[in-house]
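Incident log, structure service

09:12 report received: a user says their structure output differs between two submissions of the same chain.
09:20 pulled the input from the user's history:
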Amino acid sequence: MQRVESPSSDENRIVSFESRIPARRDRLAWSKFHWALVIALGITWILDGIEVTLKGAVSDVLQEAATLHLTSEEIGLIASFYLTGAVVGSLFFGYLTDLMGRKKLFFITLTVYLSGTLLTAFSWNLWSFCLFRFITGSGIGGEYAAINSAIDELIPARLRGRVDLIINGSYWIGAAIGSLSTLVLLDPQILPVDLGWRLGFGIGAALGLCILLLRRRVPESPRWLLTHGHREEAEQTVANIEARVEELTDRKLEMPADFITIYPRKHFGFGSVIRTMFKKYWTRSLLAFSLMVSQAFLYNAVFFTYALILTRFYNVSPDKTGLYLFPFAVGNFLGPLLLGRFFDTIGRKQMISLTYTLSALILMLTGFLFIQGSLTATSQTILWVVIFFFASAAASSAYLTASEIFPLETRALAIALFIP
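09:34 re-ran on a clean worker, output below:
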């Protein structure tokens, strides 16, 4: 059977050729090689979860005179700088990911992210904190584009949905660890109030250096190599992967019959990419935008203010907010973990509709009960755990959708454009 992968335009086209590489990838049995990919790609989200949870938990601490003495408005401004950095970084690094390859950008974006995290530990006032959060955000924005592209191009299609959701959901493993760490880092009986939060950011950055070593074992995307005319390198990369899987599974792989026709190009201009997305695939762009905005609005509205709500409305002590953040984080990870396989079996459309709808309905109920004054810190947390059990799977599926509905040559930038 032959499938044709159409080029986005005729510009810079090289002579086409046929390839079985996608089919060779999809028929691979799951092995330790794939687990190594999951760990190398997902561990970034774990560290990001630790770091962002810590930032949310220290929001109240940063307002104390012994620290940076910030106001609630300035705390919100810091969050805005982080999100702005994520948008700028995703666009810039997303374009470079499509241009230069997935593997190179893994190291660049991770280095930027870890640098921003480490610098945050040495913030001395509002504007230094904002700047360092912007740098951190730009790195993580680039990671979103590079990692989700790599998942789509290295993981067998039959397992891609659950793997994508679990990797993106692993952020919440870090959030759970981060929430527990605040019980020590933010306890003034254990650490000085202006040292604990700085130590948390510093430790996260130091641990992140281990990821650079793990990333060395992640191969370049064979599909990216094919699309950019590196046919021999793509064949060698896939052959190495197949040899590794055969060794690990003790099974000989047969050559599949399916192939696609590749139209390689050496360069994809930014203008041609944008035209492809918003002219030829404008309905797909609208879908991706809607999914991304809705999940980001819900997450940012709740997560960046979680600690403030607990302290201001329910009188929870700042050093105890981690006790409430922990079950919230666990629920967020269990959602993608338990629901992810249904995105591969039941289908993308059905599960996306279900998870988004259930999240919205339970959120409306929670908002009504909050206005009525019927909630406590415990019941508020329980409802948020239930909401984000479904919302976390929905949020991860937004990145899965953006990576799957656009051509490979625009994939990373497509993901980047829709990070709100």
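09:41 both user submissions now match this output. Likely a transient worker issue. Closing.
09:42 reviewer note: The chain is about 75% helix and 0% strand. The CA atoms of residues 211 and 292 lie 27 Å apart.
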